[in-house]
Amino acid sequence: MKRIAATLALGLLVALLVGTGVASAGSAGNDTARGHVADAHMITLIPQPPICTPFGCQPQPPLRVVTTAEVDFNARSSFNGTDPTGSARFTFRNEDPDQVFRGEVTCLNVQGDFATLSGPITDARGGSTITVGGQTYEPRSFVITAFDGGDNPDFIGYVLSPDLATDQTCYTQNAQLDLVRDGEVVIDDAL
Questions:
Q1: Would the CA dihedral through 30, 113, 116, 90 be positive or negative?
Q2: Any bridge partners for residue 63, and if so which?
């Protein structure tokens, strides 16, 4: 009877250790986000002044400005977001020559089918400034937010900002999403 109890206890211990090892092995994977989208949209909302009459002022909705670029990105990090690496490229084909901004991924936040990645702009070709809604600035950082719809549509949005990125930007900012009409987004959450 003691032998059966010892054998059962040993079997239970082995099962627990193997189960823990399998769970740990799954956690050791990488989060990844990659995509190529030919017509990604940066949606910028520009505040508008109110319309005032002798009877009072009427607030106006913000002006919605859409800037289209070809966006390519490839990023990975450990399962908990540490050690992010990768790159992003934004190509504006409406400029002659094409205007291209490249960035380094320094922050990757993957939650299920959603990913936000960010980092500094490291290279500009064809011009170092961008004009959005009449405002011209030099992009110093980027944020890409993407959704992998699997068999359903994917979504993506991006922001090129004059502000510097931090290693936490992908946790504190995101871009307004729009439907991917030409391209694909693939996101893999290691958890």
A1: positive
A2: 46
